[in-house]
Every structure is written in C-alpha cells, then in structure tokens.
From TrEMBL:
This is RNA pseudouridylate synthase. It catalyses: a uridine in RNA = a pseudouridine in RNA. Pfam families: PseudoU_synth_2. Residues 92-245 form the Pseudouridine synthase RsuA/RluA-like domain. It comes from Metamycoplasma cloacale.
Length: 295
C-alpha cells in the first residue's frame, strides 16, 4: 500500500492498548474500519506486523498504519464560560466545585469543556483530561479530573476505596434512622446503612427501588450538627436521590424523585478522601478535599 501513517506515542499514550490508542488517535475513522486494519494486518509496530489489539503501547514505539487517510478530526475547543471554583490542582489532579445546572458532558458549556479551556488543552496524544466519576447536572460540588493518563488509570481503578460524602436537604431525620435501622444489643446505630436494588423505570431517566431486581446500591445516611450527610459505598446512578425517595424523605427541589419545588436541587458533592492508591500515588492517600455547601 502506498499511503501510510507513522505514529510515535507520547508519554500520555504509554500502556494504552494498541486498539484503544488507534481509536483515540483516529477519531475520524469508524471503529469497524480500525478493526479491519487489525484483521488485514495493516499495522506495524517497530517494523513488525502486529494484529494484537491488547498490545500495550510504549514510548519509543514506531507504529505504522497502512490504507487510511483523513484519520483525525480537527480539534475545536468550545469557548466555554468557566464558572467552577478551583479546590486543588497539581501535576496529576484538578479538583473543582461544579456549579448547579452544569452538565458533565455533551453540552457547549459542560464541565468537560470548561476544564479543557482552563487547562488550555491542545490535542497532542490519545489522552484528554477526564473526570474520575461524575455527578448529576443538577447536583453541585466536588469533581476530580485526571490531568494525565497514568493518573486516570490509577484513580479510576481505585474509586471504590474512596470515601465520597454528599450533603443534602430533606425531611430525613432521626426518626427515619430509627425506623429503618436494626438495633445492635438494644442500641440504634446513629447512622443508617441501607442497601436497595435500583432499576431504570421504563421509558424514563429515573431509577426506582425494586426488592427483587436491579443493581445493589449501598448508602450510609446520618445527621451531624443539624446537617445531613450521605456516603455512597457503591457508585450507582441517582442512588442517593432514589433511596431518599424510597425512605419517603425526598431531597428538596428534586421534583423527579418526589421532592418539593425549590430554587435548586439541594444535593451537593461535599468531600472526597483518597485511600488504597499504589506507592506511586501514595502522597494522596488519606488526603481529604472539601467543597463547602452554599446554602
């Protein structure tokens, strides 16, 4: 074949699989066409034909792909209006306090576009700064972004170790805890730990509790200094909102889940505590980051 493309991976490409690397770099090529390149052995790595999709790209590799053209879309960063509050930033992480009614993705002024503008991002590799987890459009508060690929892989894999706490406003009270808790040696736990099964309601973007079907969602609720907190032990869609509706104490402003109308949805991603990270990222273990509520 006469036409070919030579690629030389950057630092933020290292250890990405060859298939995912090419999908990210060739973002103007259908995935089915990239798969065809593997089947036809139209890819060379360091001079050797390579059709192993799981090959881990390395820094000094030379990758040649034959038979493709017009492979990349020109990168156009949206001129987003930055309205997040900066909580923390270093070479690996960017932690921000997202405003209410800002989508995470897929809208012109979404948080992703705000982050790319803030970082003055230019596409030089297969990596784009990405969030580690997400929160709903109507929810405010902490969102963590990885600024390089190695950080994204590490933190994304260890999310279940992190302590993620939310604040909310609802009729949830001590009576709710007593009513739904099991006593231990005659004493009621001051925190309500509850597991429900969630499934998507037919034809609606809403999760409902079903005792027999759906994914398990575990949450801890408690009250401290007249403030109400929820810690998610599983990261399921709308789990705090759906669980509080199930407890008959929906969040103020959460119309979708039975709450009273209000100026906003009173749910806020309040804090995150990192733990369980590998030695390379051990400096972040036990660090706590907080975005205070504004109500």
């Amino acid at each position: 074949m006469s036409n070919f493309i030579i690629l030389k991976p950057k630092k933020d490409d290292v250890d990405r699989t060859l298939f995912k690397y090419l999908v990210k770099i060739f973002d103007n090529v259908p995935i089915s066409r990239i798969e065809k390149s593997f089947r036809q052995k139209d890819i060379k790595v360091n001079g050797v034909r390579n059709n192993n999709k799981q090959y881990k790209v390395q820094l000094k590799d030379e990758i040649i792909v034959y038979g493709l053209e017009n492979v990349s879309k020109p990168f156009e960063r949206q001129d987003a209006n930055i309205n997040f509050k900066l909580i923390y930033e270093d070479k690996n992480l960017l932690i921000v306090d997202k405003a209410i009614n800002v989508a995470m993705h897929s809208e012109p002024n979404c948080l992703d576009n705000q982050i790319l503008k803030y970082l003055n991002y230019k596409k030089t590799s297969s990596f784009t700064p990405a969030s580690i987890g997400r929160i709903d459009k109507k929810t405010s508060g902490l969102v963590v972004y990885a600024k390089n690929y190695k950080t994204l892989v590490e933190f994304d894999a260890k999310q279940n170790n992190f302590e993620k706490i939310y604040q909310f406003v609802s009729d949830f009270n001590e009576e709710t805890i007593v009513k739904n808790s099991k006593s231990i040696n005659g004493r009621i736990n001051p925190k309500l730990e509850i597991t429900v099964r969630l499934k998507k309601e037919v034809d609606k973007e809403k999760m409902v509790v079903d005792p027999n079907f759906g994914v398990k969602a575990k949450t801890i609720f408690w009250i401290e200094n007249n403030k109400k907190y929820a810690q998610i032990l599983t990261g399921k869609k709308h789990q705090i909102r759906a669980t509080l509706e199930y407890l008959k104490t929906p969040i103020l402003g959460d119309i979708k889940y039975g709450g009273e109308r209000a100026k906003r949805l009173f749910l806020h991603s309040y804090s995150v505590k990192f733990s369980g990270l590998s030695e390379e990222f051990a400096e972040y273990n036990n660090q706590i980051f907080i975005a205070p509520t504004k109500w």
